[in-house]
Q: What sequence folds into this?
């Protein structure tokens, strides 16, 4: 399973930063890529970023590329999403999940975390 932990608060001003952590355990931790997704009110869940099991490969959506950084610490079984230069349109519930494939599709992921609200507003 994965457990989502957020550091930095729920409300961030535009231009601010926030870091999300996703702690994986058991079977999820081993040989799984981890992805971050987000879902804004009234919208479908969308892909944000993913990282391979080794951490050597990463991939970002165009909307966050250059602003968000995904990384992982396998010694701690934790994946991080550092979010910088946040914009109001980044407001959403953020989720992490695991996959044994290399995909951006929601259906390829399992062991979803519970989600955490990120609000970017002045």
A:
């Amino acid at each position: 399973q994965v457990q989502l932990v957020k550091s930095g608060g729920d409300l961030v001003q535009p231009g601010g930063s926030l870091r999300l952590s996703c702690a994986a355990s058991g079977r999820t931790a081993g040989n799984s890529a981890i992805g971050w997704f987000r879902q804004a009110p009234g919208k479908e869940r969308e892909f944000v970023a993913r990282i391979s099991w080794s951490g050597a490969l990463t991939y970002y959506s165009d909307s966050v590329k250059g602003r968000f950084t995904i990384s992982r610490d396998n010694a701690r079984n934790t994946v991080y999403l550092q979010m910088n230069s946040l914009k109001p349109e980044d407001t959403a519930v953020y989720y992490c999940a695991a996959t044994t494939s290399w995909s951006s599709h929601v259906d390829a992921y399992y062991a979803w975390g519970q989600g955490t609200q990120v609000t970017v507003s002045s």
